[in-house]
Amino acid sequence: SPAAKAQNVSSKPTETPLLSDDFHANVPPGWNAYGDGVVIGTLDGKAALQTQGNSQIFWGSSSDPRKMYQDVTVEGDLSVARSNASSGFIVRASKQGDGNNWQGYWASLRLLDVGYAVVQLYRFPGFVLLQEARVRGLVLPGQLVHLKITCKGPHLWVWANDMSTPAITEFDDLHVADGFVGLKSENNKTYLRSLMVTPATKTPRTPYVGNWSWVKGAVFITSESVNSYQMWEQYHPDVIDRELSFAHASGLNTVQVYLDFLNWQKYKQVYLNHIENFLRRAQKHDLKVTFIFFDDVGNIDPPHLAPYHDPVPGIHNSQMQGCPGREIIDNHYEEYRDQLKEYVQAIVKAHKNDPRIIFWQTYNEPSHVTNLPLLADSYGWIKETGSTIPITATGGGAFYGSYYSDFPSFHSYLDPKAPYSQSMVLGDGGSEHICTETLDRPSVDMPKLVDYFSARKTGWVIWELMIGRDNCRFPWGSPPGAEEPKIPFHGLLYPDGHSWSREDMRKIRGKT
After folding, report:
1. How far apart are CA 134 and CA 118, in angstroms?
2. Residue 23 — φ and ψ, nearest 5°?
3. Which of 69, 229, 247, 406 is found 20 to 30 A from 191 (Cα to Cα)?
4. Which helix (H) or strand (E) holds 331?
5. Which domain holds residue 313?
6. d(Cα 202, Cα 346) in Å, to the nearest integer?
7. CA distance 165 to 133
8. How far is CA 186 from the centre of its chain?
């Protein structure tokens, strides 16, 4: 059949283009436009394909299955004219026409602010956002960005600007079928300088496809500690045991714990002993563990060990410290690189196939370009050990973690000061994705997040288990000396083990 022939073409081990055009002459024959007009315009004095407003153009006759491909790569140079607008490539579209009532995928470039762009992967119908990632480098309105999407079987990869590493690696088996390729523009004037469509032959690594839907977790810092550095340095097994028992009694099955370079640097084997002791106590209470090696968030920089300051009244997470700190990351990375490698590998080698650990997290919220060397290196350092435990780092529009992750993880918060209704996002990727931070009352409370993620079979980790000295009960932006909040921004339990909300406990346990 013609459809079978098209599939055979797309699976041949060849890079011969199915379509290639630089649009120097005119709109190439065989393109079908839906929505606003498609013309030949100019960008920087050079010819380019121009679309205006909301439009979709597809290649090939809508009745010609020979122009439908399953395993295909589409790439080209395109621009986004202004903020809050998107443009990108369609693959596997089941049909052509106006609107979004077709099955398939759209890889889009979205400009959020001057210089700041994300690449997004949507599944249609339903405009379902599967993943998004921050684009490396500066992106300005009207600037050409090289965008590329490859799909082969249930796997999809998306690149933007940097072709060495995919920004998005996705597993999605809901639409593995032949379809049309095209260009889609949303609320935007788009220029397309060049376009190439080739069969998908060479592909990057495939993602780790796990099922994290069972995870009901919380960030764990003891209620007596101002930050995780203090928890590890002034390690109190009895407090940890008691508060881990609270986690189990609450219906949770996982704890997420920050590690740090300074404790390793000073205490070495003692620190490793504390980590092993922690894992034994977590196992005793039927809890799995995920560890975080590095963190780009903190109010105190550079980080330090004892003595620790008391929490600042009213200030959210007032003593949180990043790891290894901005000074090392920005100015002395090469000087510390070997020591950071030793830190990561010492811990991983002690637990490289440990069933008590469900996944490693190399980096929490890596949001600076200067994080990228450590983000890439730490992923490689873990792989060098032969650890069979999968690796992730925070992805999503503000972060770079998806470039160096075995599977997608993301954070899902809402703006507590927004004057409009908001919906939770990034939970539609399926059970192979996981949310590693959420809960910011009153915007996102426990009933809301449990219902949202349960309906999507997506695991979750809240910030945090204990309501204690880290001051996360105060909201973001709370002023010094603020009164105790009537509703804790983060946290489930007080130091004596009683819950802030019985409804929260019932929801976690699956009871009404």
Report:
1. 4
2. 60, 30
3. 69
4. helix 326-331
5. 216-509
6. 35
7. 12
8. 23
Domain CATH number, residue 387:
3.20.20.80
Written as six digits, the tokens of 89 are 């490539």
The one-letter amino acid code at 294 reads F
Residues 146 and 222 in one domain: no
Residues 271 and 192 in one domain: no
**Beta-carbon-side half-sphere exposure of residue 72 (alpha carbons within 13 Å):** 30
pLDDT score recorded for residue 303: 98
Q: Domain for residue 357, yes or no?
A: yes
Total domains in the chain come to: 2
Q: How far apart are CA 140 and CA 151, in angstroms?
A: 28
pLDDT at 8 over 50: no
185 and 283 belong to one structural domain:
no
- Asked whether the predicted pLDDT for residue 499 surpasses 90, the reply is yes
Rounded Cα distance, 87 and 114, in Å: 16
Torsions phi, psi for 508 (to 5 deg): -60, -40
Give the 3-state secondary structure percentages of the chain, helix then strand then coil, rounded to 5.
Answer: 25, 30, 45
Same domain, yes or no: 373 and 494: yes
* Six token digits for residue 26: 């005119």
Find the CATH number of the domain harbouring 141: 2.60.120.560
Instruction: Please state, in angstroms and rounded to a whole number, the distance separating the CA atoms of residues 354 and 341.
Output: 20
Q: Is there a domain that residue 204 lies in? A: no
pLDDT digits (tens, 9 = 90+) for 36-53: 667 767 777 776 777 777
- Please tell me whether residues 171 and 64 are part of one structural domain: yes
* Residue 387 domain flag: yes
List Cβ neighbours of 159 (8 Å cut-off, separation of 6 or more). Answer: 75, 119, 146, 147, 148, 149, 165, 166, 167
Task: In the chain, count H helices and then E strands.
Answer: 10, 23
Residue 267 pLDDT greater than 60, yes or no: yes
Q: What is the pLDDT of residues 126-179, one digit of tens each?
A: 899 999 999 998 899 989 999 999 999 999 999 999 999 999 999 999 999 999
d(CA 272, CA 278): 10
Are residue 268 and residue 396 in the same domain, yes or no? yes
**Structure token pair of residue 127:** 């405009």
CA angle 243, 276, 302 (to 5 degrees): 80
Name which of 152, 90, 137, 183 is nearest 403 in CA terms: 137
Asked if 342 and 301 sit in the same domain, the reply is yes
Summarize pLDDT for 450-489 with one digit per residue, the tens.
999 999 999 999 999 999 999 999 999 999 999 999 999 9
Q: What is the dihedral of CA 418, 422, 87, 184, to 10 degrees?
A: -150
Is the distance from CB of 449 to CB of 423 less than 8 angstroms?
no
Residue 380 inside a domain? The answer is yes
